[in-house]
Amino acid sequence: MPNLTILVNFFTQKAENWGHIQEFILPDLIKNTSLLIVFTGFLTVMIGTSLAWLVSAYDFPMKAFFKWALILPLAIPPYIAGYTYNGIMNYTGVIQTTLRNRWDVTVDQKYFDILTLPGAVFIFTIFLFPYVYTITRAFLSNQSASLVENARLLGRNPWEVFFKIVLPISRGAIVGGVSLVLLEVLNDYGVVQFFGVPTFSTAIFQTWFGMNDLNSAIKLSATLMFIVFSILILEKILRGRKKYSNTTAKARPLTPIRLQGIQAWVAFSYCLVIFLLGFMIPFVQLVDWMFLTFHKIASPEFKSLIWNSLLVSFVGAAMIVVFAVIIANFSRMHQSILSKSAARVTILGYSIPGAVIAVGISTVFIQIDNYLFSFYETIGMEPTLFLSTSLFMLISAYVIRFLAIGYNSIESGFDKIGNKYTEASRMLGMNLTKTFFKVDLRMIKGPLISGFILAFIEILKELPLTLILRPFNFDTLSTKAFQYAGDEQIHEASLASIIIVIICGIAIYIFHQVLEKEPK
Hints:
The chain is mainly alpha-helical. Helix content is 76%, strand content 1%. It is built from 25 helices and two strands. The chain has helices at 2-12, 18-57, 63-69, 78-89, 94-103, 117-128, 130-141, 146-153, 158-169, 171-187, 190-195, 200-210, 214-239, 261-297, 300-333, 337-346, 354-371, 373-378, 391-417, 420-427, 432-443, 445-461, 464-469, 477-486, 494-517; strands at residues 58-59, 257-258. The protein has a two-stranded parallel ribbon with strand order 1-2. α20 runs antiparallel to α21. The longest helix is centred in the N-terminal third of the chain and has 40 residues, at 18-57. The two termini are 38 Å apart. The model has no long low-confidence stretch (mean pLDDT 83).
């Protein structure tokens, strides 16, 4: 409904600044957004796919650690990573300070300026590649070894095996992962705003709150939706109709080859460098800054930030799981075009950037409040924008935005168990409701937990929706960290950031353990 409202208003509402935006601002927005998604997409495919193949096909020192540790960059939101790396590399940062004080070396500032479009590409790449890595590794770990072994027996070297066998059969997984990366880039507001790179997200904020022109913000949102749908169509084209499946039920996963000597250390070094850049370096810097400012920031008011963040994340994730279970089970029990179409339409929210959803849902809730004015008067309330200034609107936006995450996890769980246990329970005389709670839900316990954890992480890190839709005087860890960073109080932002990273890191580890215990 919010997205439909945006499209309708795009054609029906007049906007006073839209002509100016079209002529002077829109070309730069399209250029910057295109450069970001092209270079980030290419680099995340290179890094994510190569790491997935390395971890799946070879044994080398500390492989068991890197297997899950390479997912940890997802625990650090890109906007936190952006201001952390800027703090590390600027004039007063640890690198330049060490060069000046220890070796008396002064460097040209332009070589250490990360607040550029290439800098934004670096941040997006190094902290979003786990989407490609995780999905591709999961695909490769379940593939038959026959294709790779036959290629090796026919004399193909490792590079030929990778480019001529692995990449073609992994195309669907790679495209699926990189499409998530591109959607995250389009959704981002924190990085591009802090780095000063004009994109659609920053333009929507500036038009809405700076120019006080909601109609122009709606038109920008509709334009961004057109780009998103173009990416989704391109994804379908790139996936193609080719499908690779095992020709025998006795398929076995890849048997890793043990690397020796310099090859083992090259593989180890590659994984280590990515892990250091994507997690350890920014994490250590945040911890150092946290100790410098802990006494100043830690207060009873700060505890309310933690409570607010956990509250909206927990409630939002719980609602997502509930709705996802209902929709997935309905789609499973009613195998019709209508049920499948309804499920797909319901989960489209993840493909729509947060700023666009915020524009649409606030428009809808304001209209609902206007319709309810007479009802408010009847129950003795002052006519006011009650729903559109409440926490309910924010959590509703979370559900719309991240429902696909919970749904995909739970749908995969239902697909794995099929209908045979449900049918057996019904034949034994148990009604649908008891079967659902005593059989179906217990059979998909792993996917339920995974869906909840993933939704919880995404809501905890989320910034654009929370900035726009949060009630007055309601802050979370993410909004507070962003506000501190925007006020050039980088050190003060560290405590909120480190709490987000630690909670997300623990959740990612639990998620990895749940996946490892799931039957293949």
